[in-house]
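step=encode ok
step=design start
structure_in=
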């Protein structure tokens, strides 16, 4: 089966610019920090930060799900170097939100670190996979496909460099 292109580069770039303009309006005069959630968010974050026309800081986190005895939703966060969110308005930048467990955990974590506010920007929202009630404040597209590749997302060995988003390769 041939892969199907779900979102063209033009569709993606148009929506990223719209989200960037909205964030610029919403955070004008504020202390804005984007936190890019690796790995799926790196291409989206790079384009989004260029679409924001107000001062913005950028940091990165790489959450990894580790199952502990009796707690399958435990998440560890890896990042470096340590950064300060105290008093800053945070926008978590995700390429893809599925179950929402990691996103919910990250929201609670940055707020517990003293962030003034925390919102979510997600390029792709798989609402049918949601297990916790989180919703992106800035959303690109809703997709229900089980597995997608392209625009920084997908299999680490295939497709992250594609300028579009498509279904899994055939």
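sequence_out=
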């Amino acid at each position: 089966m041939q892969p199907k292109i779900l979102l063209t580069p033009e569709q993606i770039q148009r929506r990223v610019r719209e989200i960037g303009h909205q964030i610029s309006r919403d955070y004008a005069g504020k202390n804005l920090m984007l936190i890019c959630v690796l790995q799926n968010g790196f291409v989206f974050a790079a384009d989004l930060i260029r679409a924001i026309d107000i001062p913005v800081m950028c940091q990165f986190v790489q959450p990894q799900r580790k199952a502990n005895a009796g707690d399958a939703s435990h998440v560890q966060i890896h990042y470096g170097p340590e950064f300060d969110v105290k008093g800053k308005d945070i926008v978590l930048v995700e390429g893809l939100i599925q179950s929402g467990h990691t996103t919910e955990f990250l929201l609670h974590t940055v707020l517990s670190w003293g962030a003034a506010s925390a919102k979510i920007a997600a390029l792709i929202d798989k609402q049918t996979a949601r297990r916790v009630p989180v919703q992106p404040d800035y959303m690109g597209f809703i997709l229900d496909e089980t597995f997608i590749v392209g625009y920084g997302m997908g299999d680490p060995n295939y497709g992250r460099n594609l300028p579009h988003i498509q279904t899994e390769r055939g």
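step=design ok
step=annotate ok -> The helical segments are 9-26, 42-51, 101-112.
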